[in-house]
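ok new one. same drill as before - structure tokens go in, u give me an amino acid for every spot. 429 of them this time. try not to just spam alanines like last time pls lmao
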């Protein structure tokens, strides 16, 4: 017989498998989960996602599960609703869209080339360690201008994330409180991690050039604390989520030399005479786009989303009471055979439209940095494949670790300069 906590142990043991099993076995659009004293529903029908995400805030909005993230990112746009959320989102969207059309491609490409060249001097490297630092430099370039963070700042921010991420993830679905001394240690770690992050944020803001994205936030007349929270969110979301996906991207480049060769040829076909990627050609580069989308399908950094019912509503054939949490799992949606043929296989011939594909969320509150993240991964694939060959040091790697994001396991790779094909050599007929 099921009780309030029937599903909690299975979820805590293996959240990814838990979501997959319950989602695939679903016989109704909403699956009730026994994870505590309040109602929790797993959304099993992708057709419900858009109505949930587009619902009026008075009916369905962010709730207690999302609010727990305030321990780290404060009252930033991820944890806010209403006019404050809309104003910040609009300002960021406008500036990021301008950058996508003008300056981001050469900036990202240059940083990717520099990182690849540095890695080529090492005998072996860990993919996630490398990509997390690369994506941190990219988002800092966009926010503050070039060269704002020192290597020490980069290390401090990455270590602070490691310090708090698992504790925060564990607390989101926690029902019973920790023992007092355990809670005290966790609170101290959380505060230490946030203090380290905010120290880096403040140093970066002081050194920043008149970067457009930072100006857009300053124009909103935010308090110093609000500004710090918003910049911290951008740093974490802009580098941590993209960095985890980028590690898997390098893994697949290393595992599939034929795919890497196709990407190298595509890079050559959309580059100018100086060898620079042409921004206007990237939206119609089919191989790198499909590659990026398939990586995000298999390894969505945001592996769960949540909303909370605020007023009585009928949804998916059920009458839901206020306080009900609605869980959406991109991990499940992206791997359910009802929506994808051979979902565990890595394939570039998929069609990535439809409600069951949501690596950046869905609806009007989808990730504001979606365009930058996609562009960054696409450029990374093209730049690495065109100039270097990657080789996996291990035959296989472990499963990702579901924390706040989907953290890759150790992925050890080797890299060397690519030998040009004969057709690419000067004077080749």
């Amino acid at each position: 017989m099921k009780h309030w906590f029937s599903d909690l142990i299975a979820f805590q043991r293996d959240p990814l498998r838990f979501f997959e099993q319950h989602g695939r076995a679903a016989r109704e659009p909403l699956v009730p989960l026994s994870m505590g004293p309040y109602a929790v529903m797993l959304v099993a029908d992708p057709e419900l996602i858009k109505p949930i995400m587009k619902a009026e805030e008075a009916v369905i909005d962010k709730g207690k599960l999302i609010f727990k993230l305030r321990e780290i990112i404060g009252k930033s746009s991820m944890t806010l609703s209403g006019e404050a959320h809309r104003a910040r989102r609009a300002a960021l969207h406008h500036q990021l869209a301008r950058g996508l059309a003008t300056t981001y491609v050469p900036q990202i490409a240059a940083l990717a080339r520099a990182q690849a060249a540095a890695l080529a001097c090492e005998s072996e490297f860990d993919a996630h360690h490398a990509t997390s630092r690369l994506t941190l430099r990219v988002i800092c370039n966009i926010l503050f201008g070039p060269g704002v963070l020192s290597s020490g700042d980069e290390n401090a921010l990455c270590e602070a994330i490691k310090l708090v991420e698992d504790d925060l993830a564990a607390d989101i679905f926690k029902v019973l409180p920790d023992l007092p001394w355990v809670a005290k240690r966790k609170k101290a770690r959380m505060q230490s991690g946030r203090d380290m992050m905010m120290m880096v944020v403040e140093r970066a803001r002081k050194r920043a050039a008149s970067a457009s994205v930072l100006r857009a936030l300053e124009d909103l007349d935010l308090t110093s604390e609000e500004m710090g929270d918003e910049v911290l969110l951008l740093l974490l979301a802009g580098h941590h989520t993209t960095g985890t996906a980028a590690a898997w991207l390098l893994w697949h480049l290393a595992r599939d030399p034929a795919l890497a060769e196709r990407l190298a040829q595509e890079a050559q076909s959309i580059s100018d005479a100086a060898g620079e990627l042409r921004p206007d050609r990237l939206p119609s580069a089919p191989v790198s786009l499909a590659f990026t989308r398939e990586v995000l399908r298999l390894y969505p950094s945001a592996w769960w989303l949540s909303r909370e019912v605020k007023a009585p509503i009928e949804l998916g054939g059920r009458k839901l009471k206020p306080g009900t949490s609605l869980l959406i799992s991109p991990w499940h949606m992206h791997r359910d055979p009802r929506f994808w043929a051979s979902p565990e296989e890595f394939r570039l011939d998929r069609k990535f439209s439809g409600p069951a594909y949501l690596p950046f969320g869905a609806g009007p509150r989808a990730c504001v940095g979606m365009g930058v993240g996609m562009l960054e991964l696409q450029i990374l694939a093209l730049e690495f494949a065109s100039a270097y060959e990657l080789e996996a040091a291990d035959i296989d790697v472990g499963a990702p670790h579901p924390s706040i994001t989907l953290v890759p396991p150790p992925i050890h790779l080797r890299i060397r300069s690519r030998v040009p094909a004969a057709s690419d050599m000067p004077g080749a007929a």
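The domain at 8-424 is CATH 1.10.630.10 (Cytochrome p450). and btw Residues 224-255 form the longest helix (32 residues).
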